[in-house]
Amino acid sequence: MFNDIGALELLTLGVLAVLVFGPDKLPKLIQDVTRTIRKIREFSDSAKEDIRSELGPQFKDFEFEDLNPKTFVRKQLMDGNDDLGLKEIRESFDLRKDLADVTDAVNGRTPAASDTANSAANGSAGASSDGTVSSLTKTGDTAPDLLKKTPQQTQPERPPFDADAT
């Protein structure tokens, strides 16, 4: 609950409490707050025990944390049995290969060079049986190089700015 509060924040809260409540009332206030928190915890524990006793022996291993939807889903999906095939789906995504392809495209490397590098790393994924690398682009198809700047067309000269015309 208070795991993300740092030492500086606690010190700030302490100074603020002394300023707001004063040093005379602060010890009494701390006692009242701790007593209230203790009563709330006792009430919660007794309510949990009452619910467990009313449910009977069938639910003796029932955990109230399982009522949290995130915990329930995590427990049901990640308990070890893979009935839904999530492991296969997780393994089918090759994020490193996708990132390498994007990096090659950004750096302007040709797909054949990256296929050669990938085939050397992955066995013969992009190479055929005679050792030639197959390309995914059509032969004779010239794709525009998106990394080179296109020559700027000369634009007509703009008329001078007239401040009085506005």
Description:
The protein has 166 residues and is mainly α. It contains five helices and no strands. The longest helix is centred in the N-terminal third of the chain and has 49 residues, at 7-55.
Indicate the percent of residues in helices: 40-55%
Radius of gyration: 34 Å
Strand content: under 5%
Net shape:
flat
How confident is the prediction overall: mean pLDDT?
74
Helices and strands: which structural class?
A: mainly alpha
- Count of helical segments? 5
Distance between the termini: 61 Å
Helix and strand pattern: HHHHH
Major beta-sheet overview: none
Poorly predicted runs of 5 or more residues: 117-135
Number of strands: 0
Short account of what is shown:
This protein has 166 residues and is mainly α. It has helices spanning 7-55, 69-77, 86-92, 95-107, 111-122. The model is unreliable at 117-135 (pLDDT under 50).
Produce the secondary structure layout.
Layout: H1 7-55, H2 69-77, H3 86-92, H4 95-107, H5 111-122
Please supply descriptive tags for the structure shown above.
166 residues, single chain, mainly alpha
